[in-house]
Amino acid sequence: MRVFSPVVSRRGKSFPIAARERSLDGQIWGFVDTSKVNADRFIEKLQAAIKKLHRPKDFVVVRKEAPGFPLAPEQIGVLEKCGFVVFCFGD
Fold first, then answer.
1. By C-alpha distance, which of 1, 67, 69, 71 is closest to 36?
2. Which helix (DSSP H) or strand (DSSP E) does residue 58 occupy?
3. pTM, whole model, 2 decimals?
């Protein structure tokens, strides 16, 4: 009998996290809709909560063609103007 361990034996190359903005107010908030069921509803609820707590400059939402597909270069270009991006999924 062979027993396989799900533990990773090698670590990948580490990389630094992105710099954080000082304030969430006045920022353009980006959202990626993965096109899974209810992702759009989740984003709407997040936007409503954000408006209560912060003063967003704007919201930008891009929708993936399908859950397993990568973002198109044009969509990445749209998200580049955002202070940060929230990747949203549903189900």
1. 67
2. strand 58-63
3. 0.75
